User: Fold these one by one.
Assistant:
Number 1:
Amino acid sequence: MTREERIARGLRVVRLGHGANCSSIGSVVDTLFASAVVGGAILAAISAAVAHEKRVVVVPARPAAKEGEAVPAAAADGERAKETDEGTP
Amino acid sequence: MIVRYESWGAWVKLEETAALVALDQDGARAAGLDGEDAWSLPGGGPSAPVEVHLAVTGKCAAGCEGCYLDARPDGEEPPQETLLARLDALAAQGVFTVAFGGGEPITRDDLGELAVAARARGLTPVLTTSGLGLSDARVARLDAFAQVNVSYDGAGEAYASVRGFDGARAAEAAIERLARAGVTVGVNVVLTRQSFPHLEETIRRARALGAREAQLLRYKPAGRAATLDYLARRLSVAQVDAFVPTLRAIAAEHACDEGAFHVRVDCALVPFLSGDASLAADALARFGVFGCEAGDRLAAMRVDGKSAPCSFAPPADDAELARWRAYAAAPDEPCASCTLRPVCKGGCKVVSSFVDERHGPDPECPRVRAHRRASAS
């Protein structure tokens, strides 16, 4: 199995586009009406894109801000994203 | 790529392709990613949202009848340093996409600077505007946005039926201007009983003007739209039933499978997909269709800095956010037994709270309607 195929097997969710607009969370739906061949091609293209993007930035996952908190404590502790240009193996 | 590890694997935001993907641990390892502690330590509570709506101003002179925020010309406008601190906070939480909204964001002279600041923090900024007053000079400041959506409910009559005035020509000029400048532009189309009959023509027209995507939005009873008039403006039962066939027709007409044009639906329209039994939950989940993610994968930050589950909901404390998530995780019947439930999550709570006065099944969902008819008989 190729690396792209292993990535494709691990794909749980593929959200095309940027998703949000100012009011709602948006989802591309035309892919639902596409043929299985087209759907498979989209997943393959995304797997290849995951495999080939070299720059990797890791960001923390933190709970949502509380009411009235513009800058939660997490933002003030100096922790920043880890970045590497080493690429993926 | 921007990676956020979760107990189940990782969210990955691609930078060269406009996509957000979720990889399980095996898939992430295949991509050369290692979640380390995130994968080995016990999972905690809810993770941060992946998308946040950031209101950058409460000012708007358009006066749309159904404005969900009740934005006004003299609305509150946070100073730039306040918004930069909010962007810092969102970046620290691991948010991926920040949707700039308002009010009317383009009234801010520093809008372009804010978009650049979001990029510098690793966030993907997108923008929604009415297009009113969007000059070439203002367009030139928007190049840091990944996408700009213009509110466009149709030509003339259709637009006016939603917003109470005819701003269609200004919106059309904005779409053209943005496309000409090389900005990726989409349209937001609010679906009401009055605009729905024009939908296919609206999208045809928007695409001809340069739009590359149409985002369909359900009309919601929030802000100035939270009146009894909502009941006359929401989609009719027949229109809800025609929703999926209409989507299919649009996708076919615009050859969406070739990728040149896409159609998106908002979270509140997902319950309407239950009217088509051929749409399987696993396919919706695989292609990242999000239903009510309010207070979970989605959050909103208002002009006053308070967080809300979504742009249409009032500010919420932790207990209220937990209540929103709890309903989505364990909704009442008929949602509980619905195959789309893992995606839909019970439908729009803003609608159910207004129509039924409680967090309950979305009363306009075809499946819920059928369930209630059966129960009544």
Note: Chain A has a mean pLDDT of 72.
Number 2:
Amino acid sequence: MSPFAFKVKIYPSLCFYIIINAKGMKGLQGKTPKERIERLLVDIRENKTGAVERFLKEIQSTVLAFGIKVCGGHMEDAKDTMQEVLIQFFRGARRLRFKDPKALTVWLYKVAKNACLMSRRRGKYEPGELLSINGGLREGDGANISKQMDLPDWSGVPDRILFEKEKKQIVQRALLELPLDYRLILVLRDMEGLSTREVSEVMGISESNAKVKLHRARLYLRDKLSKHFNGLM
Amino acid sequence: MRREERFGCSETLNYLSGYLDKDIDGSLYNMISKHIRSCKPCRSLFKTLKKTLDLCRKFKPKVEVAEVKEEELSKTLKRELEAFRRFIQGQKKC
């Protein structure tokens, strides 16, 4: 008998758990956080084995990361906020009865957004350096592009350089400099993978307003990153 | 003057997000494509904005891998999780 077969014989339930979970997580690679949540909600609705455990793990990391992206701050604060979000989510999920995983996912982000805003009001997360919309977002709006004939193109800098540890901090810092509602819209759309319509639902604004704010937030972030990445070419 | 003739940098800038999301009508999309091909600053803006979105999509804060263990969950959350599990079990039986 091979050593592996021996171990399988000793820990059959553990092996079963690992196989089921590995199988369940396999199709989630490369998907956005929102797509992963939706997919796991469908798995729960279809009564797949281990789906609740996989969902719990996924929802923890998604909500935790969302809190850090939106508010920065300390891990412990983010964990507290995450627990509040999960409590509300599990209560609501029973009430909503999985009729629509997409709607449930949008609702999860709405709860997470509100929890982040409440935490900021209670002074949990360290506040980022907030800029006024008019002052901050005009800086990178590119209104004089035609006059900037030497607009540097750093898009060719390899990902391995852009994704070095300190460069990731540049992205996080630039993100935290955006006004909160602009940051929320950008995180929801470009990091979490919600559609513009879903973003407008979470934010409680019109879709056209969400598009305008998203556009300004993207330009502003590009401008901030350019200041750091121009020198890498 | 036709729309195409007065189409320049500022119009490209206004619709660049919609262009990247493919969320604009076909004729506008074609005009932006044409302008980007002929205008170097707009091409740079387009490519760096696209790269910015790539960075956003791939951005994962360090905490994303951190997992909160079940014993770290608050009593209320454990209770809600159990109620949720019972609810799922109830659904299975139905």
Note: Chain A has two domains: 13-121, 133-143+153-232.
Number 3:
Amino acid sequence: MTAPIPTSKRKYDLNFARWVRDNVAGGDKMNMCMQCGTCSGSCPIGTEMEDGPRKLFMMIRAGMKEEVLSSNSMWECTSCYRCVVRCPRGVPVTYLMQGLAALAAKEGYAPKVENNYFSKFFWMSASKLGKTDERLVPTAYYFSFGFVEGIKRSLANLKIALNMFKAGRMHIGMPHKIRDTKGLQAILAKAREIEDRS
Amino acid sequence: MSKKKMTYYPGCSSQGSGRHLDESIRAILPDLGVDIVDIDDWNCCGASVGNIGGGPLPNLALTGRNLAKAQEEGNQDIVTGCAACYLNTHGGNEKIKEDVKKRKQINEALAEADLSYDEDLDVHHVMEVIVNDIGMEKVEELSTNKLKGLKVAGWVGCQTVRPFAETETGGKYATYEDPTFLDEITEAVGAEVTDFAPKTNCCGGSVAVMKPEKTLHLMKTILDAAVESGADVVSTPCPLCQTNLEMYQDAINKEYGTDYNMPVVFPSQLIAVAMGKDKEKDAGLQRQTIRSQKLEDMAK
């Protein structure tokens, strides 16, 4: 995953498409897309996307690297997999959307997209504690928008938190964590190293 | 079916928002013929954003560790009740099994903690086990406390049925566009199935947690249909669906001027109540933030 991204020089520049194909899992299936739009039409949250998956795939073919990697589209994906089961050409659309988001994050395009904060805090909890802390991840995410916004969003969710606490579905105290956090962290560090070298 | 043993992966929600899913699964499976032993010191599956936050291989390594720890419990198959856990663990397991290079990479990482995964285990969703292995006859037979008159809208959601639809190892439900298994469970426990169309609609998943304002309309569609169908409760197998649809009803009412107060329960809770299990300890009914008096009155 260390190859430089080719820059587009012509209107239809396949270099970026080739690069995506080679660097995003499932990217080799993207050339099966026939632009029918079943994916975007089936998307529950397509109205929130700047570009639906169909358009995004065409933009990739057109070599629109900047526009693709800075699009909000892949960050809005709810992972419902409706596009995956409905694609008549077997394109693993949801997986490609996640792959493009990971790629955008890695290439430094994503920080301005707020979903990226959420996945960062989520990963912090999963990799350090070995478990998702349902209190810390959203709270850290709220405060990533600044202190005032953090307070505002936390207060907006206070009633939900109280209800969850009363029902015993949220606890007070230290986060749950696995016993062998050291072992897990060593495994993940190694996996990262392997991914970076291949 | 003779007594079956499976390794159980509870997942993070089992200690938080989805405790009632975990409790009801543990309460019903042994009676239904499945003894479970937990994966020791299991970790998070990565859910739907681990891939982005951690990268593909570290995310897969989360599953690799769970599989390696599951293997230590024996070579029986794994079962999980959480849709995201199923998505990652089943999907990751199949990837590792079919890709020699991936397995080698994962094992190289696992060796850092003296672990390895060399078995060919299978990972199943608890719904799949109930539908395909246990069977509705068994559920019906053990449902001695029939939920007569309870009207149930069966909402399957996304990740339980869709990601592995029509794959050899994934699910084997009748269809993914119009799955019927939730309604079959409703009938098996003696309750009444309502005519509920958006059974595989999306609630917004983790986007609903991040930006509820963008997904309230998705959940409203589901509530509209449930209320119109005359349902007393919505039944869903997914812990995130359950929590989202329950906790955002206030926000939906505020945004759209509705007055929804629809209980959302797990099918495993309905089975537990129908089996005459304890309404709190086994069925976890006290964990609903929107409670169903009708269901609680039926419970022992």
Note: Chain B is about 45% helix and 10% strand.
